## 1
Amino acid sequence: MFTHVMFALSFAVSILISQVAVGLDMTDKQVLSDAAMNPKLDINQRIEAIKKLYPKQWASSELMMRRICIWDIAGRSGPIFTAAQDQKTELMKLGINVEMEAYTSESILAEDLKAGRCDAGFITGMKARTFNKFSGTIDSVGALPTLKHVKLLLKVLAHPKMASKFEKGRYTILGVVPAGAAYIFVNDRKIDSLTKAAGKRIAVLDYDVTQAKLVLKLGATPVPSSLVGAPNQFNNGAVDVLPAPLVAYGLMELYRGMEPNGGIINYPFSQATMQMVAIKDRFPTEVAQLVRESFYQGFDLIVKQLNLQTGEIPEHWWIEIPDKEKQDYEVMMQQARIELREA
């Protein structure tokens, strides 16, 4: 999953210094921009249009420097950062000097991106919502039932006509990749319905007010935490319920928090994503468009790698719920989406 993401990023930066010689007799900026954004044109023609559109910025023969900040729970030894490092040699071959920085705190990464200390940051879709509400709503509870729906949506979003939706203020979204379905982990199998969640402690992200409001409506207690802190709280018994992507089961050893009588509600409540957020003037619209297309083209490979990372979840952990309970979940999730839209 993450190797492809960094490949897409290396592709984005490499096109900025490409020396492809394609004869495009165009001088008007709008014509050049239209060519760069046209998926029907040959990729080399689109690259040449970008070079002509930004001659001063990319005419230099000097190495291009970009600082990419990567969120990884395990830091420099984690799977996300390791995959990124694997691409560094390839980037150097392209004449690009890339500094890759690992962050275990997603909040600190976000602040460094805002301060301009990062040219781009790879963060969760939930956190990306603070930079771009449009792309951030992809992770909304109940919005996308399956990966099939995610793929269809990302296909639509990769079209150039959607490019403006990814630009908000001084930021642009370079790409969106699936991070797998998110489920409810509980430390007691008896917590198998919304009504039984009343009085329980539920982990919520400290920057997402909507989550806290939703938990309060259930009669439960929201416990603000971070993406790193929440799994630890669950494993230590500080919270009874943890919403998390399935891939976190092995990565964060969530079986520790479920032992001996816990489990996983067998009903995905959202499809999580990872998103590359960049400072717009360092990755112009035309460049960002090519990257988003590249991200989408690697969707199937990313899903394959994600499944390998998730592995097999032992059958005894799954908690089946009746259709009536699923309907209750759907109503709750619809209400949450409405609140998010109005926020």
## 2
Amino acid sequence: MCVFLYLFRDKNVDSRPKLRRSQSFNTSSASGIKQLLLDWCRSKTIGYQHIDIHNFSSSWSDGMAFCALVHSFFPNEFDYNKLNPAHHKHNLDLAFTTAEEKADCIRLIEVDDMMAMGANPDPMCVFTYVQSLYNHLKRFE
């Protein structure tokens, strides 16, 4: 979530600058954006096995959601039905490599980092990468 901060002076307290959140982006709009992105991911992966996208953490840990999302745009690049949900590293590498080669979407997450995070990767890391995927893949819709 991006939050803009700005300086202001409160003349009633003292003359030191203070930080205050901008009202242009609040929590509800950020959660709305996240929900829209989750909905988009779900719509692109309908019918794919081993997919249950409900968050930006555990839903992506085995790489299957990344593979399904990328495969929905580039179905000739790999056989999704031959993927094994237990092969996390392979799935993540396949999805990230295909997205980079076909959609010019750079890796914002490394496979080893995802592996180190285990079953619950950092939601902000995953959200940031999925948002980048959206921005790169939508031109292929």
